[in-house]
Amino acid sequence: MNLKIYDNVPRLKTAEKTGNKHIFVKRNNYSFYDLHWHDYFEIEAVVNGSGKHFCNGIEYDIGKGDAYLLTPVDFHKISSDNSLDIINVSFDATWLTEEARNLVYSPEYVKMRHFESSELESFISATMLVKNEYESGGPCLRQLLEYLVSRFVPSDQAKYQGIEKSKHLDSIVRAVAYVEQHFREKITLEDLAKIAGYHPAYLSRLFYKATGENYTERITSLRINYAKTLLRSGFAVSEACFASGFGSLSNFSSIFKRQCGMSPATYRESNTDR
User: Fold this and answer.
1) Residues 116 and 239 in one domain
2) Any domain includes 155
3) Among 77, 169, 256, 273, which residue's CB has the most CB atoms within a 10 Å radius?
4) DSSP summary character for residue 16
């Protein structure tokens, strides 16, 4: 993907915080920060205050206890009439195991959630432990980070209907996670079959049984949703098209109109965050 199309939206980089393989924990007071994205993961939790969080072109009301986990493909900004007391945890993906990264990109992952008072206190305590473990070189850093990430993934992963907890489930999780992470690239059924360790035809049946979509439908859905994210954030139709993995404007426009009931240009005009 050609990242030059994102030049008008700042991308914060790991090296600008603490260098390679970074972990950064800080509590801040914000009334506003502008639209941006990162090359790392970020978790923010509101400790006090209220305001607006704009994520991928959608506006959310946020207040005490609201938290969100952002991946390297998410765009966001916040605003508040007063000030938001926010705790921020950012970290490089290399700190997570492959299983944890796959969960973040899986259909079970929820971008935002709300913590009740006791949950919020536990979450804040865990972030402080992350900070201390990182600064002291402690042995539990990876486990603590994965605990924070797990707060955004339901403990019951029964969303894969009709697939027993077995090697089949593990293989399907790997295949689905790969699609979720690489949908903007060219992905063939043969690619997924190698990842899952099955014959392409058999994997195709398992994929549909688990998700209710075949792999091409899933890729198309992800591309359309990502294109909508970019269009809501003000990107041009051509930028949204190619950044989302579509090979031509005509094909993109045709699929978009069929799925969304309007052209990409009309959607952009109606939904752009101004």
Assistant:
1) no
2) no
3) 256
4) G
Number of domains within the chain: 3
Segment 68-119, tens digit of pLDDT: 998 887 888 899 998 899 999 999 888 887 777 777 776 666 788 899 998 8
Q: Which residues pair with 36 in a beta bridge?
A: 76
Kindly give the interhelix angle for 167-182 and 215-232, rounded to the nearest 10 degrees: 40
Examine the domain organization and report whether 39 and 144 are in the same domain: yes
Same structural domain, 121 and 74: yes
172: Cα within 13 Å, side-chain hemisphere: 28
Same domain, 181 and 138: no
* pLDDT tens digit sequence for 223-236: 998 898 889 888 89
CATH number at residue 259: 1.10.10.60
Any idea what the CATH number is for the domain that residue 53 is in?
2.60.120.280
Q: For residues 24 and 88, state if they share a domain.
A: yes
Structural domain span for residue 228: 223-271
In this prediction, residues 242-265 reach a mean pLDDT of 93
Least confident of 86-90, 115-119, 162-166, 239-243: 162-166
- On whether the CB atoms of residues 60 and 53 are closer than 8 A, the answer is yes
DSSP 119: H
Closest to 267 (Cα-Cα) out of 38, 257, 258:
257
Tell me: do 123 and 33 sit in the same domain: yes
pTM over 0.90? The answer is no
Per the CB < 8 A criterion, the answer to whether 235 and 267 are in contact is no
Q: Which pLDDT belongs to residue 257?
A: 94
What does residue 252 show for φ and ψ, rounded to 5 degrees?
A: -60, -50
DSSP string computed for 243-269 = HTT-S-HHHHHHHHHHHHSS-HHHHHH
The amino acid present at 17, given as its one-letter code, is K
